[in-house]
Amino acid sequence: MIRRGLRRAALFIVALALVAVTWELYVAFGPEDGGEVLGMRILPRASERAMPHTWEMGQRLFDPEVRGQDRPIWLAVTGYAWYTFRMALVGFLLGCTFGIALAVLMSRFRVVERGLLPYVVASQTVPLIALAPQVAALGGNWDLPKWTWVAALGAFLAFFPVSVATLKGLSSTSAASLELMDSYAASWWTTLTKLRFPAAMPYIIPGMKLGATAAVIGVIVSEVSTGVRGVGFASLTYAQKATSDPAQVYTAVFGAALLGLAMFGLVVGFELLVMRNRPAEGSS
Amino acid sequence: MNNSAVVNPVPSDAVVVDGVSMVFNEGQQNQVEALGSIDLVIRPGDFVSLIGPSGCGKSTLLRLIANLLDPTAGSVLVNGKSASQARVEQDYGMAFQQSGLFEWRNVQKNIELPLELKGWSKARRRERSAEMLELVKLSDFAAHMPWQLSGGMQQRVAIARALAAHPPLLLMDEPFGALDEMTREHMQAELLRICAAAETTVVFVTHSIPEAVYLSNRVVVMSPRPGRITEIIDVDLGDDRDEDSREDDEFYARITDVREALRGADRVAGARGIEDR
Amino acid sequence: MFRKIVAAVLPPIVVGALFLGLWELIVKAFDIKPFLLPAPSAIWAELIDRSDDIIDATLNTGTNALVGLLFGVVFGVAMSFVLMRFQVANELITPLAVALNAIPIIVLVPVFNNMFSSTTEVPRRLMVTLIVFFIVMVNVAKGLRQVSPTHLELMRSYAASPTSILVKTRIPNAVPYLFTALKISAPAAVITAFVAEYFGGRQNGLGYSITSNAAASRNAASWAYVIGACTLGLIFYLVSIGLEKTLSPSDGSTQARQQQSGGLTPGGVTT
Q1: Are there at least 3 beta-carbon pairs closer than 8 Å between B and A?
Q2: A135 Cβ under 8 Å from any chain C Cβ
Q3: Subunit contact A257:C269, Cβ cutoff 8 A
């Protein structure tokens, strides 16, 4: 078990190293001004400005954000990422709460399901993030701090996948188990808490994973369109300094990666906790 | 009753298993000795059932004959050739507990699969699959998809597929294990009819004593850890068994024999897992 | 039949009408300023008024999404065969894909803008390709690998060559997985192409039009472009469903099997 984990970690590091090596090889041998393949300009510029060396990205983490400061940039980026993480987390938790509540409501009342489900499903296929500027405009008018609106957008995006997955999970309870609860004369609420919810967990958790990443993306994109200074905004402003400081933007990318993994790890941790006594996938 | 497993093999024998043993994960911590030294000769036209408690290696023995596994020691001859040669030349057909039909092919196309792999022309395949559909009485379902059929019908398609290339030998691994009792008895009668029509030798793995006795002219009783043949019981229900044969005194007598043999094997190994029905 | 259709269609229409009516009513009753929340009627008027511009912007964003989607599917399918064939590649790349999936890689758009030229559509299309690529690769590789053991044993009993096992067993088994990947990646492609516009680059698509109109307090116009974005997402999704319905043999069992085994979706590996 431990050996397998070590092996996987080692392979992951090897994979990352291979990516870095590919990058360096391209920087070394790729065309300076980009290039064409089959008449399409799809080869990136291998110039220092566009593709800095991997070690420069690493070094850049320990230099200050702006010349003259003492604080290394990794601290600044971690700060941005932490800010974004908190907004995404608030949004995610809100989205989960409302998503699960709506799913319970839909599973309880068929009319609600019939009326709302098509919209909930359609919402997964349309770029809801298009509403970011609208919501920001709305929020700007009321005297609420900007971050609440960014978090609200995260919640909005997390809400739909969680609610669809929960509804699917709640309606996937086996008929035999439902009959068993009926034979105990269990109430609707007891059946929900003792049977439907536990049985729906294998559906809810993947929905939460979708919701967690959706919340992160929602918050980052909203930052960009509202100017809240989190890691998404940082990546945009750093990128604009590419001419003088090409490696800087990559520190923001690392920060965003860290944030995404932390958020995902949170849900995986929850999964391990909830699913600890269940058969692993494929072992049944 | 006949305790001697090897009866002087001759080249025309359908299957000759000679001193075969099988060890999984040899030399590792989880080493399992699945089969001890097995000797078994199956004559052309035989219907031989392998029966025994879970873990006695009956499925392993079947897979060794099919060359899906290679024995740790000993040799397997099928139709006078090595098992691997026989597999390459398609001297046998095989059916499993799961029908294993391709869900993206209709019934007819499923039956034609082994013929396709042999490179038969389309016209020839059509002709043969129609013939096989006739044999398993599913001609009306040629264009159906597998999931549209009942479990028993799916298993009949699987048998038709196994026999499509007219192999002289049919290997079956608990093919009726997932069916209900009524369907199962019906399928047993069908199988006897189909195999008699095609003059096929059959090796049949089962958990069920009545199934083994009803179908076979020889029942091979096995015991576990390591898998060994404890007894081979001849059954003489005649060549024209039908539903009435299930009421025959010979039927009950042989069921008792097999049960006693299994109990003997059970006492030796302390294992369970036989359906007594 | 007729009653069934009515039962399915009527509730959402009623809900939609109620929602729009209530929205209109609230805006009118409380005299909400249009730069805050425009009334549905005002949005509709803008939609008609700017229909040419909106269609242009939708086509621009839609082309980016489509080009990225096509490249992503082609490369993803090609790579899935590599993952199937070489266990090492699978062990190296699949965890990377899972990790990337949890990361908001959309922040790479400004990086791509530097690597290419922000006056072309390449950075956006590349972003879409990247996202689609991983979804398709992981799902199709799963379909190629997770073949029923009975099928494999059967093919071995036929002494089938590796090529015929691939052609007759693995590829047909992977087809439903490809369509699932397509259903996930089609809307994801639209969303990505759209969001990529927020990070700079050419100013010709839906994302740019929505932000610029919102910034100029032309809120109703901005909402009209939102409708364009939603329509585009729906079209991509419906076309991917239509492709699945027409091209793959209707079959309940594969889908059930596949749902159990799950796949990579934009947001994590479902179980």
Answers
A1: no
A2: no
A3: no
- Taking only the tens place, the pLDDT of each residue in B180-203 is 888 888 888 888 888 888 788 999
Contacts with C146 from chain A: Cβ below 8 Å: none
Chain C partners of A158 at a C-beta cutoff of 8 Å?
none
Predicted TM-score of the model (pTM): 0.78
A111 falls within a domain: yes
The residue in chain A having the minimum alpha-carbon distance to the alpha carbon of residue C265 is A210
Do the Cβ atoms of A159 and A211 come closer than 8 Å? yes
Which residue is closest to C249 within chain B, CA to CA? Answer: B104
Domains of chain A: total: 2
> Cα(first)–Cα(last) distance of chain A, in Å?
19
In tens, the pLDDT along A203-233 reads 999 899 989 988 998 888 888 777 778 888 8
Q: Categorize the per-residue pLDDT at B268 as very low, low, confident or very high, splitting at 50, 70 and 90.
A: low
Structural domains of chain B ordered from first start? 1-91+169-277 (3.40.50.300), 99-166 (no CATH)
**Facing residue for C251 by CB, picked from B88, B100, B147:** B147
Q: Which residues constitute the domain of residue A231? A: 73-274
Answer yes or no: do B117 and C249 touch at CB < 8 A: no
Residue A141 placed within a domain: yes
Beta strands at B218-223 and B228-234: parallel, antiparallel or unpaired? antiparallel
- CB of A119 less than 8 A from some CB of C: yes
**Residue C61 scores a pLDDT above 50:** yes
Is B88 in Cβ contact with C157 (below 8 Å)?
Answer: no
Cβ within 8 Å, pair C35-A137? yes
DSSP state of C270: -
CATH class of C47-269: mainly alpha
Which among C12, C233, C267 has CB closest to A126? Answer: C233
Judge whether residue B126 has pLDDT over 70.
Answer: yes
- Claim to verify: residue A174 and residue A265 sit in the same structural domain: yes
**Residue of chain C with shortest Cα separation from B145:** C251
